[in-house]
Specification:
By secondary structure, the chain is mainly α. Helix content is about 60%, strand content about 0%. The protein is globular and about 50 Å long.
Length: about 300
């Protein structure tokens, strides 16, 4: 049950009416979501947001969420010591993306979702990760997509969609064994802000992890000699506390204006394009670390 079956739709997709999956009206899915319950239907809403409404934005925002965790100096020595994020950055990225995609595309209680959660918990269980760091990481997956959407989304998330994002990740966090997850959106956001304020500080380990991940992203599109010139375009997406915590130079003002202006132009243009008529499924795409497919129980480090 845990191997990849490219011909089978993921479970959550099967719950959604065909005219919502492939609408002709740009705002049909938003109207459909407005009639759902943000807690009871949170996984279905999460699927629609990540796979249909904002797939590119969701991926980019979760990459920034990963980067933000490297600003917490007390947690990065362990990540450096494992070597996974420094020596096998692409594989670690693919493993994380696929495990989360299996959960988000199938649901936490589907056999594939349960298998992915089991594999993730096996990986994390090797290390004595403090609960507050677990919880902080979870908050980045809640709030970075919401904040990205507020800046760059072709439409703004509704209250139902923001609450559903909170509830779906709270559900995932509970299955991960994270304790004391607030049951209130605002309380969780306060924890996120206060944790960063108290724990964002520079260390060499922070920089090593952030550089490896930034260079991975640059390497998807550009040859290595161009990376130093292109790095400021990624830095332009980061706030000052994050830049200081990982030791990155701020982007020059013209670069930042170009990046943010380009993202605003994209946002405006997307509003006039036809709606996506087929979900973008990460579990059905080719991944560099697994050119011949993958099995859930094989994701992650071997030891």
């Amino acid at each position: 049950m845990t191997s990849t079956h490219a011909s089978d739709p993921p479970y959550l997709q099967t719950l959604i009416p065909p005219d919502v999956l492939a609408p002709r009206d740009r705002f049909a899915r938003a109207r459909y979501i407005a009639g759902l319950d943000p807690q009871g239907d949170c996984e279905q809403i999460g699927f629609l947001l990540a796979s249909c409404e904002f797939p590119w934005d969701t991926t980019r925002s979760l990459e920034l969420a990963l980067l933000r965790t490297f600003g917490v100096a007390k947690g990065t020595p362990l990540l450096v010591d494992t070597g996974e994020l420094i020596r096998r950055t692409q594989k670690r990225y693919d493993d994380t993306a696929l495990i989360l995609a299996e959960i988000q595309e199938n649901g936490v209680d589907h056999p594939r979702g349960r298998a992915a959660l089991k594999r993730m918990n096996q990986q994390h269980g090797r290390y004595g990760i403090p609960q507050d760091e677990y919880l902080y990481t979870l908050t980045t997956f809640v709030f970075e997509p919401i904040r990205w959407n507020a800046r760059f989304g072709w439409r703004r998330m509704s209250e139902v969609e923001r609450l559903a994002t909170f509830h779906v990740w709270r559900r995932i966090g509970a299955r991960m064994g994270i304790r004391d997850i607030p049951d209130d959106y605002d309380e969780l956001e306060r924890f996120n802000i206060e944790f960063e304020r108290a724990n964002f500080r520079y260390s060499e380990e922070n920089r090593a992890l952030a550089e490896a991940t930034r260079n991975l992203m640059l390497g998807w599109f550009l040859p290595r000699p161009i990376w130093p010139a292109a790095a400021p375009f990624i830095h332009a997406m980061l706030d000052e506390p994050m830049l200081r915590a990982v030791g990155f130079d701020p982007a020059p003002a013209p670069v930042r204006a170009l990046v943010l202006g380009g993202m605003d132009l994209r946002r405006r243009a997307l509003r006039w394009l036809p709606p996506r008529r087929r979900p973008r499924l990460l579990t059905r795409q080719r991944h560099p670390s697994y050119p011949n497919g993958y099995r859930i129980e094989g994701l992650g480090a071997d030891r």
